[in-house]
Amino acid sequence: MKVKLYTLCEVAYFAALVYVTVNWVGPVYLNADQIINSAMSLQHLTIFYWGQNRLASLLPLLAAPIRNPEANLAACIIISASAFFGLLWIFANSLAYDEGDQSRRQLVRLSIFSLTAAIFLASFKQSAIYEIVIGHYEYGLSYLSLLAGFHKASKKSRLAPIDYLLNAVLLFTAIGLNTSTAITALALSLWLYLFSDTERRYCISAAIVAVISGSFWMWISVFYPHSPTSYSQFDLRNIVGSFEIAATHMLEACSLAGLTASLVFLAAIASVSPRLNRTETHRSGNQYFQLASISIFGLVWICFFACNSWVILNDRAFRYFIPSFYCLLLIASVIAFQNFRAWPVKRLKPLIFLIASGTFLPLLKPFVPLGNYSVFQAVPSQVSGQVSGFAGDYWSVWPGMVKAGWDHRPVFGFGYRSFGNENNLKNYFLDPQKYGKSFAIACMHMSIEGCSQQLSEILGNIKVIDPQKVSEGIKIIKVEPCFYKSVTTADQKFSTSQKSDEIATSTTQPPLCDPQVKSFKGEVTERQAKEIRLKLGTIVSDPEGLKLPVTIFNGSSEPLNTVSGDGKPVRLSWRLVAAEPVSARLTSEGWDGARQNLEMSLNPGESATTNVRIKPPEVQGKYLLQVAIVQEGVRWFQNAGMPIPNLPITISPVSGHCFLITLPLGLSVEDACDAKN
User: Fold this and answer.
1) Which of 305, 294, 301 is nearest to 323 (CA)?
2) Hey, how many other C-beta atoms are within 10 angstroms of the C-beta on 466?
3) pLDDT at residue 43 in the model
């Protein structure tokens, strides 16, 4: 009877921790990185996280049976939080595994679990708790899977073949979720081999499985989109400086007041704990060795990954050192066990009640429905209720898409990571039965040009009509797929209007985009690229950033067509480089993040003007604004000899989203901020 009651208490305590934590941090900090898992779960499951070649999509897979959109997102959040607290439970269970009869074992386990969870919730800032518990499930789920296999094996004197198989599956899954887990698996295998009674064959087999699994996931990742910055490159030349930066960011994630209170509470528990007998003192000595091992691993992880190229690119954010935080929590669990295992049952029960009171009372708040989370409140209801898709800012697109999907109708997201759902997007928006019809798309916190670019990258040629402003930074545009006549098939015997009418009434093609613009196949020659010229107009500063008119002049003897019929479009690109040192002007990097389609056909001697939207730099200062032309997959025109216009500017942020732009003497700038604020 006691066993069942204690089991019920453990389950209830676990569920309560998940609920209060989610209800505390979720409404404030839930963001697109977690929300997109629900989109993947409901629309298109892929091996990896959309737009990446890592982080196997286990979370979307687990939530996939739940087809109600709102319930699916709730499941994604709950699974993530459960994985983290499940990891703390495994810490407690592995320590209390041999503690007396089952009822005492359960009480000791619950004591360790409750205290470790309380220390975690008190010692970290609310934003960091969200990142660790919900935001980065790839650590919680992967380490839960890893330790679940090792935990069972380390507690059995003789292992059956099924134990080997189960651990192999769990280890393979863990490394797929997060490839870096292979390092932890190898370290744990070595430690068990040297310092435990676990079967040596098992430790060796686990190490082999870790190596094979890591190699497999790294091999398969090369077939998926990936960043030019490698996840497997390390620069160990400045390990001390890298460690200092990483440690600073980790400390910034902590609440010093809560951490101090936790240490004081641990010291108070230690002061009233009964003394251990000789046998228990010997076991305690072994656990001091465990503490040292855990501490060393946590420090090595920080040193090693603070030098990782991808982590450096992301400013060594604390989230990349979550395994080191796990080490700290495991140390807290070991310390708690050293104190609790000598306590009688009658003292453990009130202690658990005291810890529970101190944990839950500060966090209890009325239940917050998903629709009231701040990330969804930022999406106007009139937008979510009438559009078929969202484009623009990544952090706004996916919350908008998921919220609109709660009406149980097809809604899709464009922009960053949407290529993971490319086939569904094309099947829906390029359905021949819908040709000639327009789709309403919400353009979220981005210029119409930027949203159009995102749409055309997946849907191809589109016409944007009737843009309407809904609120600050949010517009609804109507989009219609279209196509351009090919240069190679244009028949000069037909008039443009006659040809357009025939095409527009076709049931197998979308309507014509622009009868004056033609598409081409092949490459722009180096000779022609050399004769193209760019002229920069007057910059406009407004709440959406910087708008720059760019005039393209065809100085060659051949027509210049920019719309490609074989996936090699001619586009504008631009960059802002530091004006000093002068060598910065000669660099070839920095063009990849900016593109704008050009939809024009220019005969020799003709020119056309288009506007580009430029995101101002985060750091004010002196810059060179440079604009170039590229034919994707072929060449940059400047490499063929086309001059790049250089405009020296000084940028300083002012009120709102506007920027003060200072140009060299004799040049002017138009400031539209005052009129729009």
Assistant:
1) 301
2) 10
3) 94
d(CA 301, CA 306): 8
Q: What is the largest CA-CA distance in the chain?
A: 104
Neighbours of 523 (CB within 10 A): 16
Query: Which amino acid belongs to residue 357?
Result: S
pLDDT of residue 210: 95
Give the pLDDT of residue 122: 95
Alpha helical stretches, state H, 273-321: 278-305, 309-313
CB atoms closer than 10 angstroms to residue 182: 24
- In 445-592 the beta strands, taken as DSSP E runs, fall at 462-471, 474-481, 485-486, 518-520, 532-536, 540-542, 545-554, 560-561, 563-564, 570-578
SS (H, E, C) 122-135: HHECHHHHHHHHHH
Q: Letter for the amino acid at 310? A: W
User: In 308-461, where do the E strands start and end?
Assistant: 389-392, 412-413, 439-444
How many residues in the chain? 677
Which residues pair with residue 653 across a beta bridge?
A: 659
Q: What is the pLDDT of residue 607?
A: 93
The pLDDT of residue 662 is 55
Domain ranges across the chain = 139-226, 378-481, 485-516, 526-676
For 329, other C-beta atoms within 10 Å of its C-beta total 20
Closest of 532, 519, 439 to residue 485, by C-alpha: 519
| Strand 570-578 with 596-597, pairing | antiparallel
pLDDT digits (tens, 9 = 90+) for 393-421: 999 999 999 999 888 888 999 988 898 99
> Which amino acid, 198?
T
Measured between alpha carbons, how far is 111 from 105 in angstroms, rounded to an integer?
10
User: Angle between the 256-272 and 322-340 helix axes, to the nearest 10 degrees?
Assistant: 20
**Residue spans of the chain under pLDDT 50:** 278, 281-282, 489-507, 581-588, 655-657, 665-677
User: Running DSSP on this structure, what letter comes out for residue 669?
Assistant: -
Return the amino acid letter for 485: K
- Helix (H) and strand (E) counts in the chain: 24, 21
Q: pTM value?
A: 0.84
Separation CA 138–CA 74 (nearest Å): 17
Query: Which residues, in sequence order, are bridge partners of residue 628?
Result: 573
* 581: preceding bond cis by omega (within 30 degrees): yes
Q: Could you give the CA distance from residue 507 to residue 509 in angstroms, rounded to a whole number?
A: 6
Contact, 635 vs 626, CB < 8 A? no
Is 2.60.40.10 the CATH classification of the domain at 526-676? Answer: yes
DSSP state of 629: E
Residue 280's pLDDT is what? 53
392: left (phi over 0), alpha (psi -120 to 50) or beta: left
Q: What is the pLDDT of residue 668?
A: 44
E-assigned strands of 130-207?
none
Is the sign of the CA dihedral 482, 485, 489, 492 positive or negative? Answer: positive
pLDDT of residue 593: 64
| Burial state string for 137-162 with b = 16 or more CB within 10 A and e = fewer than 16 | bbbbbbbbbbbbbbeebbeeeebeee
Count of beta carbons in the 10 Å neighbourhood of residue 87: 23
Return phi, psi of residue 476, to 5°. Answer: -110, 125
